[in-house]
Amino acid sequence: MKKRNVLNSPRLSALKKKRRRDLLNKVLIYFVIFLIFFVGLIFISRIDKLNVNTIIITGNKVVDTEAINKIVEENIFGYYLYFIPKSNFLLVPKNKIKNDLTNQYKRLQNISFNTENPNVLAISLSEREGKYIWCGESMPDFSLEAEEKPCYFTDQEGYIFDLAPYFSGDVYFKFFGPLGLNEGESPLGLYFSKDIFTKLVSFKNILVDFDLKPNSVLVKNNGDIEIYLSSSNKTNPPRIVLKSDFDLDKSSENLQAALATEPLKSDIKNKYSSLLYIDLRLGNKVYFKFQ
């Protein structure tokens, strides 16, 4: 008896054709729906009432408004997928704008957006305040007429954010020490001694409370810290020496006790200008030397 080829039966072939036709119809329907949705999205996204036409920038004091405005305009100009405007208030690339602004201007600290009015992109800024200055990886040679090197503003946490103008005297407390920079590399956007910066500032403030006059600090590669004091002896100013892992409370207490005890108490009062150093690196012992 001859076997029947079921796979090639007319009925099965017709069923396969019907399934293919149904599948193609579904694909076509979905495509049409997607196309209608996409065209509708393009139409809605281009409605003038839903697009930004005014940029308002507030909060900046140093960074130029026009420069900020230019970066914002560059980011909202153009289209997504060639059709959908970036200026639509729901589609404004806020993260891109924020990243571009903070990369260009390290002084900018906080950036927030308000699009309650679809036609207005309101940008509120806050800027870092220059508390101290970082002036290089090494101290200048006090015995020479040193060339003025550029200094940079830092905030209260040691973040370096902008070039500082030249200041004569001790207008700002200065920090010196390595950042691990390659030659020609900018320090902007880096932290100076992030792990101990706030501790150094706290100790500096304690020295002021002790009627000493700190004006700069050097963080050395070997781990030592030298805090320099204002003095009439410009070629060899007095310094306080610490370890980088110094205990703030213990070092402060030891120094306070030494300053209140003879002979240092009288020597500081009578021959301060000849003070060379006070060494706080050796536990509870305080060593000092005068010329």
How far apart are the first and last residues' alpha carbons, in Å?
125 Å
Secondary structure category: alpha/beta
Oligomer: single chain
Please state how the strands of the largest beta sheet are arranged side by side.
8-7-6-9-10-11-12-13-14
CATH architecture assignment of the largest domain? 3-Layer(aba) Sandwich
CATH superfamily of the largest domain: Cell division protein FtsQ/DivIB
Global morphology: elongated
Q: What is the chain-wise order of helices and strands? A: HEHEEHEEEEEEHEEEHHEE
CATH topology of the largest domain: Rossmann fold
Please give a structural write-up.
This protein is α/β, with parallel strands linked by helices and 291 residues long. The chain folds into 3 domains: 29 residues; 80 residues, membrane protein fhac (Ubiquitin-like (UB roll), Roll), CATH 3.10.20.310; 159 residues, Rossmann fold, CATH 3.40.50.11690. Helices cover 31% and strands 24% of the residues. Strand 2 and strand 3 form a beta hairpin. Helix 2 runs antiparallel to helix 3. The termini are far apart. 20% of the residues are buried. The mean pLDDT is 90. This is POTRA domain-containing protein. Keywords: Membrane, Transmembrane, Transmembrane helix.
